[in-house]
Fold each of these.
Amino acid sequence: MSADIRKIVTVVEETLIEGERPVSPPTRRAAAIAVIRNPHARKYVENLDDLIAVGEELGKVLGERAVAALGVAGDRVESYGKAALVGADGELEHAAALLHPKLGSPLRKVLGKGAALIPSSKKRGAPGAPLDIPLGHKDAAFVRSHFDGMEVHIADAPRADEIMIAIAVTDSGRPHPRVGGLKVSEIKGEDGLR
């Protein structure tokens, strides 16, 4: 792998009670986060192809780890999201290079599908800063029950010359959804919207 990875962290969150009501079956979210050295920290470079290639590699690696942690087959994943947190000596464009051009295709292969855009966020922060990974249904963006997010943080990352890259997946939507919208049973999965 061309990424200079310092560590990979995997987080699983299982919600058993929400709003003082049991959640049955429990909802589960998993995230896999890589902490990599930023090869362009403290300098401007025009060509970010190296980070784009790393994003492609991490789409597969982190996607596989997140799905394994969730404990379901890739085609059973319902929601996904991606995010990056750049250390102080990097640029937001470094996060964009990792997340946008090529990360999605290998992630979709791990899942067997993924017609909807992968929700994403990027920001700059110091070690321990929280990273919010937005979530949405993988095949239909209009499924409101799956508009969600997962917060992750790593106490010692990102250092000033590092970037945290995260992929999150879920086995369901929010617990007890009740704000209407397209239901999972109504998804056509043709255009990524409905």
Amino acid sequence: MRFFLAVLLVAIVASCGGPEPRRPVEVKSGSFYKASIERTKKLLAAEEAAIQGIISKDTVHEYISSPDGFWYYYETKNDTASYRPKTGDQILFSYNLMSLKNDTIYTAEEIGPTSHVIDKQQLFPGLQNAVKLLKINEKATFLFPSPLAYGYQGDNKAIGPKIPLKSSVELHTIIIDNDSLN
């Protein structure tokens, strides 16, 4: 009997282990994200190639490459003004939106004059940075790749997802914020 109890005690002690953690049903390898990144890189490269094609065919205008990732040229330049909008300044501007093939999506009349406080209100990313490049009474045309336009969502109306845009922007007035002068 003693032997039986000793064996039973050893068996009980040996079988007592901690709870075993559950293993995930599905293991994520990250390959979906890697594939998505590659698709995005290819899409951006194709859009930039299309924009470079437009620029190379346009011999009339001198395009400027923005450090923010878009291209533009001036239609009307104001050499007498020197002030560009800064954070907190309120501006009044008008713009239109077109496809890269010059198909009009929204006219300036449809959008209407737009009042905007620099870096305090949301515009699509490219336009947010584009208005900072203009001086009062200047007009420029901008070419935005889709990540700087409406990106993966579009505007849920006339602009679909992943659509690069062309826009003519004219800055009418700047109301300078006193804090931006310091």
